[in-house]
Design brief:
By secondary structure, this protein is an alpha/beta fold. The protein folds into three domains: 5-146 and 154-303, 3-Layer(aba) Sandwich (Rossmann fold), CATH 3.40.50.12780; 327-403, Luciferase, Domain 3 (Luciferase, domain 3), CATH 2.30.38; 408-503, GMP Synthetase, Chain A, domain 3. The chain is 29% helix and 26% strand. The protein has a five-stranded mixed sheet with strand order 4-3-5-6-7. α5 (110-118) links the parallel β5 (100-104) and β6.
């Protein structure tokens, strides 16, 4: 098994297509490898080397995919959501200690102003007219070249290849460092689970600042020498047009995307028939079994549901491909790391026992950065604690029974309620607040909040929503705000987010 990305990406046949995109010439594996080498040489020439953090704020598309892969090969890639507001960019760029920020030439992202304020170097990603999908050059805005680089060229297996933040409920978001070894292990796990070959073509509609899209959508298929068709992001109206152009053998998505595709599938039966899929894949939140059945009937292909998280470099468990059994409602078998169910006393439970899902393996992060408290809580006897409650049957199939953590999972977008609390508390009319997840028929969960106003200081739901929207991405804005005289608390007087929606009669 490869433990460096250089080896992992060496398998693609030179003239086979690696990256494609709507209305663009394709990029071949030989050209991808050359692009990576040239990008690393360019970064090294700018004084950026192994383990230096490069924040990437690019829209979805082929250049986001190739820039992530190139940076991950020799520096530390830090993909960020381009929808963030200035306050969010300031937190992430500071927390990451970013050495550089990559943006598209002409970008007006608030990240650029924040980078200037923090002294982070801004590098433009330039795509020349007629360039192959994913092809680019990097041009620093200051024009300066470094005299030397401490650690040039390709990264080593234990160097940090990527950093992502995971939301925290009772503390600030945590930095998850993922090594070359972690990325290679996870890409290999997914490649084996889905039996990727050079003949596969993936239609990527996942955002490329999430672990799901980066690893399952891009790195795993490239490691098999296959092709990734990179769209500008999910669009149900364009999906079947892209399907006609890409001629995919598979795609991966979150349940809300699958449901939107399903709603338009009847009108596009001819496209589905022209391009039969080998399988569909779903991850990031659970899929209702009735939707799985409907998708399989419409596409005439198995839907493979998987279970992943950032700390595991995505995949932990997956339902297998036919002819092996797929169990609706289960997230499948361990698919890479070891998976077990742990009791409250730290012991591992037998089949059928309900407890916390724990994992260990080559794809699991060695620990959060600069956060000994989170590491002490997150690891027990060498096992990483997922924070999810579940059970494993006698055949080894894992089912989730609840979430121990309070993160709001809005259609695969994870929202820290504590972060939204803190924004609302900055409003002059707000005395107390508690944010929580409430049930939503399509997204799974939506953001809600209970607010206690200061005496004599009125505020409306719309006013508070607009206030949050100036400081956070749209998906974090509470869709429901209840005004109460006091915050509901549990029997012990503690604030309890979990179960609050039910207690308040929401959903």
């Amino acid at each position: 098994m490869s433990d460096s990305l250089k080896d992992l990406l060496a398998t693609g046949v030179d003239d086979d297509v690696a990256v494609s995109a709507p209305d663009r010439p394709p990029l071949r594996h030989r050209e991808l490898r050359r692009l990576i080498a040239e990008t690393l040489a360019r970064l090294n020439g700018l004084g950026i080397g192994r383990n230096d953090r490069v924040a990437i704020v690019l829209n979805n598309g082929p250049e986001m995919a190739t820039c992530f892969v190139a940076c991950a090969c020799g520096v530390t890639s830090a993909p960020l959501n381009p929808a963030y507001r200035a306050d969010e960019f300031e937190f992430y760029l500071s927390d990451l200690n970013a050495k550089a920020l990559v943006v598209e030439r002409g970008s007006v992202s608030p990240a650029i102003g924040v980078a200037a304020k923090l002294g982070v170097r801004v590098i433009d990603l330039v795509v020349h007219d007629g360039a192959a999908a994913g092809s680019f050059v990097l041009e620093p805005r200051d024009g300066a070249i470094a005299a030397s680089v401490a650690q040039p060229a390709w990264a080593e297996p234990d160097d940090v290849s990527m950093v992502l933040h995971t939301s925290g409920t009772t503390s600030r978001p945590k930095i998850v460092p993922l090594s070359q070894r972690n990325l290679c292990a996870s890409a290999g796990n997914i490649r084996r689970t889905l039996a990727f070959t050079a003949a596969d073509r993936g239609l990527n509609i996942m955002p490329l600042f999430h672990i799901h899209g980066l690893i399952a959508g891009v790195l795993a298929p490239l490691s098999a020498g296959s092709q990734v068709f990179c769209t500008p992001g999910f669009n149900a109206l364009k999906f079947f047009g892209w399907m006609d152009e890409a001629k995919p053998t598979w795609y991966t998505a979150v349940p809300t995307m699958h449901q939107a595709i399903l709603s338009r599938a009847a009108k596009n039966a001819d496209v589905i028939k022209r391009h039969p899929l080998r399988f569909l894949r779903s991850s990031s939140s659970s899929m209702p079994p009735q939707v799985i059945r409907e998708l399989e009937e419409v596409f005439g292909a198995p839907l493979i549901e998987a279970y992943g998280m950032t700390e595991a470099t995505h995949q932990m468990a997956s339902n297998p491909l036919p002819p092996a059994a797929r169990k609706p409602g289960a997230v499948g078998l361990a698919a890479g790391p070891e998976v077990a169910i742990m009791g409250e006393d730290g012991s591992l439970l037998p089949a059928g026992g309900i407890g916390e899902i724990v994992i260990r393996g080559a794809n699991v992060t060695r620990g959060y950065e600069n956060n000994p408290k989170a590491n002490a809580e997150g690891f027990t006897n060498g096992w990483f604690r997922t924070g999810d409650q579940g059970t494993m049957d006698a055949d080894g199939y894992i089912s989730l029974t609840g979430r121990l953590k309070e993160i709001i999972n809005r259609g695969g977008e994870k929202v820290s309620p504590r972060e939204v609390d803190e924004i609302l508390m900055d409003h002059p009319a707000v005395a107390q607040v508690v944010c929580f997840g409430m049930p939503h028929p399509k997204l799974g969960e939506e953001v809600a909040a209970v607010v206690v106003l200061r005496e004599g200081q009125p505020a409306t739901e719309r006013e508070l929503q607009a206030f949050v929207a100036t400081r956070a991405a749209d998906y974090k804005v509470p869709k429901k705000i209840l005004f109460m005289d006091e915050i509901p608390k549990g029997a012990t007087g503690k604030l309890q987010r979990i179960g609050l929606a039910q207690k308040l009669g929401l959903g």
